[in-house]
Amino acid sequence: xxxxxWVSRPTFESEIARLWPHFEVHEExxxxxxxxxxxxxxxxxxxxxxxxxxxxxxxxxxxxxxxxRIVANLGVGYDNLDVAALTAAGVAASxxxxxxxxxxxxxxxxxxxxxxxxxxxxxxxxxxxxWRATEFRGWLGTDVRGRTLGILGMGRIGQAxxxxxxGFGMPVLYHNRSRLPEAIERExxxxxxxxxxxxxDSDFLVLVLPxxxxxxxxxxxxxxxQMKPTAVxxxxxxxxxxxxxxxxxxxxxxxxxxxxxxxxxxxxxxHPDLRTLDNALLSPHIAxxxxxxxxxxTAVAVDNxxxxxxxxxxxxxxxxxxxxxxxxxxxxxxxxx
Length: 337
Ligand code: GLV
Ligand code: GLV
Description:
The protein is built from 14 helices and twelve strands.
């Protein structure tokens, strides 16, 4: 009578296989957008869940989840989880911090360079059969080298993005809730500034903030108005940090040169104005999507599930716990293993 793990989406079987000796594993065989009621039913029938960002889990979804011990999120951002509700229910939560830092930093640069050099629009034009002659003054983009890189949200991903800027000879400004240790600032060659300065002085502004009530629309019409009309905005963080309607207006009216966006408000829906703009380079939330990184994210989720049931090298201590308090609560209600 093994405990049950529900895996909400197809992942990497080589990692999921590590659960088999200890758990009955119920895996979804395709990507499904579950309703709240469907989620509640599934969570009520398992002892651990490995979920993705499309699974929004709060008190309603947890109401019948009497056996549930841990929800392991396949993502570093966890705005899909109501951590307070999970803690109150005695359910641990974990994320996949750190294993995706380098892949996401690479991708931020891909969007930055792609938006600066208009790669998306040029490719669409070529594919549409519009290439007759190469115009000397056609497809002019923006140079990157030596320009100022701004980073809003200077966690590990922001730092990895900053390190790459040295290869482009770019000074780096950042704004963050707290100042980085001096050694890291020196290594990243990054300087803390207030948000107004960041907006005003950045030629390229990359967003790497978690989505919280405080960061919602951190970039809206007022912030966009403070940016240079030649600036490029890159969002690899979360939809909702940017007011997409305000951004589309700024891009359309030439108040901002370009944007590279991997995340959107209400995705997979994308604001229709953004979809029509050639100076917006758009991708479907894939910044961490490399084979190695998505496998590593699965491994982290599996490690956290194993650990919360006393198995594996981290037995008893899930390494990516978001709410250590939950374990105390859980211990009190003591689930049988
Ligand atoms: C992806 O968006 C993540 O948070 O890992
Ligand atoms: C992103 O969420 C970070 O902390 O860098």
